[in-house]
């Protein structure tokens, strides 16, 4: 450790790793030792501005090392010590790592974070098959190409899988849907195609599912309502067709539903009653009246129905949603009178040329507030004028 600190020039005065100022290595910043202080269990060097990777082979000599955090630096080489049998937790995210993911990694790994680097190429299938203890795998924003390897499905303990912001293509492998312990699955901003498999309903532990910004087609499977623990479901910006499954109303934990920018149509069913963050149905093919199935969303903050073919009037129940802060109805075919919304609600009605305000409709285009203050001033003017005459005469 002293050799490493000198090689990284971290042994200078006021440095967090200075053996002269602090000879007890277990008191160095980011160093965690065993209770008996006879071995090093964890190193956290996140944000140390490291760019020199030459020290990494020395870490192989620390056989007791369980956890390593080198995130938020400028390292360029993936260390070979990832195969160290004692390693359980590795975080190398937000560096400048280049080259392939090592095929030989510790079978003891529980958590691996390599996101926001420049690794590129296909995801090596052989790397993950032995990782039977892996629970958290984060490989987002790396530049991966090719398909999602089915071998990831062998990591049966996975609770979090993040492959977002890559260039992955092809269909969702069925093996991925055997990961029944998954709680978070993030695949957004890739080039995935094909349909959403019916087996998605097997992932009953899911709390977050994000497959947005891909090229998925087909319908939303009704089995998705089996994912009763979902609180965030994002499928927007795909090529999904058909109607929203009726069973979605049974997803009682759901607080965010993003279905915008697809080709959905038909009846809009009852929505999950606890929706809070957002309901986005924009840029689809919905038509007809805005359905009363939306009237029970008493906790909803954002409702976006823009860029559809909704017609008829803006229903009064929308103005009665108590927590609504933003309502987007732009670019539809709505007409008639707009209800009075609270000043705390931002309402976008643009692109509906036949809509009018309640004041305009009831007063032939003259604002009722203007008339109100006109008559008030006239009423006040008479006694004031009368008193003025009376005082003058006196």
TrEMBL record:
The keyword Repeat applies. InterPro entries: Leu-rich_rpt, Leu-rich_rpt_typical-subtyp, LRR_dom_sf, LRRC69/RLP. Keywords: Leucine-rich repeat, Repeat. SMART domains: LRR_TYP. It comes from the Eukaryota. Pfam families: LRR_1, LRR_8. The keyword Repeat applies. PANTHER family: LEUCINE-RICH REPEAT SERINE/THREONINE-PROTEIN KINASE 1, OS02G0609900 PROTEIN. This is Leucine-rich repeat-containing N-terminal plant-type domain-containing protein. It comes from Hibiscus sabdariffa (roselle).
């Amino acid at each position: 450790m002293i050799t490493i600190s000198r090689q990284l020039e971290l042994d200078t005065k006021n440095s967090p790793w200075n053996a002269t100022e602090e000879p007890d290595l277990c008191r160095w910043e980011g160093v965690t030792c065993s209770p008996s202080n006879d071995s090093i269990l964890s190193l956290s060097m996140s944000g140390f501005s490291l760019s020199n990777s030459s020290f990494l082979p020395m870490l192989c000599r620390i056989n007791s090392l369980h956890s390593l955090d080198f995130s938020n630096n400028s390292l360029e080489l993936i260390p070979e010590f990832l195969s160290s049998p004692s390693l359980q937790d590795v975080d190398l995210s937000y560096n400048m790592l280049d080259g392939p993911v090592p095929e030989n990694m510790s079978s003891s790994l529980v958590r691996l974070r390599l996101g926001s680097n420049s690794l590129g190429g296909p995801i090596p299938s052989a790397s993950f098959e032995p990782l039977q203890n892996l629970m958290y795998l984060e490989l987002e924003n790396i530049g991966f190409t090719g398909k999602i390897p089915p071998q990831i499905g062998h990591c049966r303990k996975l609770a979090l899988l993040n492959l977002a912001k890559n260039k992955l293509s092809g269909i969702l492998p069925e093996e991925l849907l055997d990961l029944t312990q998954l709680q978070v699955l993030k695949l957004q901003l890739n080039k995935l195609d094909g349909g959403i498999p019916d087996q998605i309903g097997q992932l009953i532990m899911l709390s977050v599912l994000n497959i947005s910004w891909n090229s998925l087609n087909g319908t939303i499977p009704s089995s998705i309502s089996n994912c009763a623990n979902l609180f965030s479901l994002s499928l927007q910006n795909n090529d999904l067709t058909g109607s929203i499954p009726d069973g979605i109303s049974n997803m009682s934990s759901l607080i965010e539903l993003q279905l915008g920018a697809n080709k959905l149509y038909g009846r809009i069913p009852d929505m999950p009653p606890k929706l809070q963050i957002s309901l986005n149905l924009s840029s689809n093919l919905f038509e007809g009246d805005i359905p009363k199935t939306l009237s029970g969303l008493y906790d909803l903050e954002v409702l976006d129905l823009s860029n559809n073919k909704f017609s008829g009037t803006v229903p009064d129940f929308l103005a009665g949603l108590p927590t609504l802060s933003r309502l987007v109805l732009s670019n539809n075919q709505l007409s008639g009178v707009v209800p009075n919304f609270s000043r705390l609600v931002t309402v976008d009605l643009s692109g509906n040329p036949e809509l009018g305000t309640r004041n305009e409709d009831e007063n032939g285009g003259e604002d009722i507030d203007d008339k109100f203050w006109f008559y008030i001033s006239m009423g006040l003017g008479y006694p004031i004028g009368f008193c003025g005459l009376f005082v003058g005469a006196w």
